[in-house]
Specification:
heterodimer, A: mainly alpha, Non-ribosomal Peptide Synthetase Peptidyl Carrier Protein, Chain A, 54% helix, B: 2-enoyl-CoA Hydratase, Chain A, domain 1, 7-stranded mixed sheet, 4-stranded mixed sheet, 11 strands, 17% strand
């Protein structure tokens, strides 16, 4: 089975974030700063990371998220592990 | 003392098991007050053990099991005292917390850590003293101490080495990365995974099961399979104190304490 496309991964990241943090999906865009848009702190970011790891069945070390705050870059990091 | 309610933790007996609940906001940071109450618990443990077959350690806080040592207290201690006195204070704290951890490690009943959320540093070390680790699906583990210029100081490395391969220890320690429950189970740390919010229930079911067996047999089996690495534990205190006296540590602690950004728990 081939890996999903980057667009597909990005879409799933946005869907999961919207669903878990109860934000309307249409309010999230790929280049949003997820800390600001979702109103989350670092503990909640770790929670999001864990949910993404479970969803995509990957391991994404948190040092790869250093300085990452937008959904698009986050999706790219995930894509590199699929 | 069958029941106790303190500022940072409480315990009670439930269906033949002792339940030790951590509840110091924001995420059970382990400082002097927690240490004092843990010492109180350890002092009460021989009496409690006569009438219980298991000990469950868990947290009542949403954020997680424990974020580890109280770094603010450690930082303030370093600033308020002359260097030699601060170092003596740190060594004394470590020796006391090691005594607590060793007593829990050797407890003559089956000990279960029911963890969820953040299980970092000293919190992870507290979970590692237990015989069985049961983790909520959203639990996350980490030894972040190297980010501060330190090593884990509550017995973490010797106990992690006891349970998992050295290559894994090096990866987790030298990168300081956090990892999820699937990884924790894969490397052999977590024996059971519970659904979100269900770790305590699963721990209670497990405690009920272990209570069916003869206590002396259980204690003998535990002593046989779970030796306490006393020499390495002592060495850990020496290495920690040696590192603590360097200026880089004060700077690392200051950065953490003064960090008001959204990412203090990210590397």
């Amino acid at each position: 089975m081939s890996a999903p496309t980057t667009d597909h991964t990005l879409d799933e990241v946005l869907n999961l974030a919207a669903s878990h943090f109860k934000v309307p999906r249409e309010k999230l865009t790929p280049d949003d700063d997820f800390f600001k848009t979702l109103g989350i702190d670092s503990l909640q970011a770790l929670d999001l990371l864990t949910r993404l790891e479970h969803h995509f069945r990957i391991e994404l070390p948190d040092y790869e998220l250093q300085g990452v705050s937008d959904f698009r870059t986050l999706a790219n990091r995930i894509q590199a592990r699929l | 003392m069958n029941d106790f309610k303190g500022q940072t933790l409480s315990w009670q007996k439930v269906n033949g098991a002792i339940e030790l609940a951590l509840h110091r906001d924001p995420c059970n940071e382990i400082g002097t007050r927690t240490l004092e109450e843990l010492e109180k618990f350890v002092a009460a443990l021989p009496g409690l053990s006569n009438e219980a077959h298991a000990l469950i350690i868990h947290s009542t806080l949403k954020a997680g099991f424990s974020a580890g040592a109280d770094l603010r207290e450690l930082f303030q201690r370093g600033r308020a005292m002359e260097k030699g006195a601060a170092l003596r204070g740190v060594r004394e704290f470590l020796e006391r917390i090691h005594a607590v951890m060793n007593a829990l490690d050797a407890a003559p009943l089956t000990t279960i850590a029911a963890v969820h959320g953040v299980t970092f540093g000293g919190g992870f070390e507290l979970a590692l003293v237990c015989d069985i680790m049961i983790a909520d699906r959203m639990a996350r583990f980490c030894f972040p101490e190297l980010r501060l210029g330190l090593i884990p100081g509550f017995g973490g490395i010797p106990r992690l080495k006891r349970d998992v391969g050295n290559a894994v220890v090096r990866d987790l320690l030298l990168t300081g990365r956090s990892f999820n429950v699937m990884k924790a189970q894969q490397i052999g740390l977590v024996s059971q995974i519970a659904a979100e919010g269900e770790a305590l229930r699963v721990a209670r079911a497990t405690a009920s099961q272990v209570g069916k067996f003869d206590r002396r047999t259980t204690a003998a089996a535990k002593e046989f399979v779970k030796p306490i690495p006393h020499e390495e534990l002592k060495r850990e205190i020496d290495i920690f104190c040696d590192l603590y006296s360097r200026p880089a540590v004060e700077e690392g602690l200051r950065k953490f304490v003064e960090n008001e950004g959204v990412q203090p728990y990210l590397p």
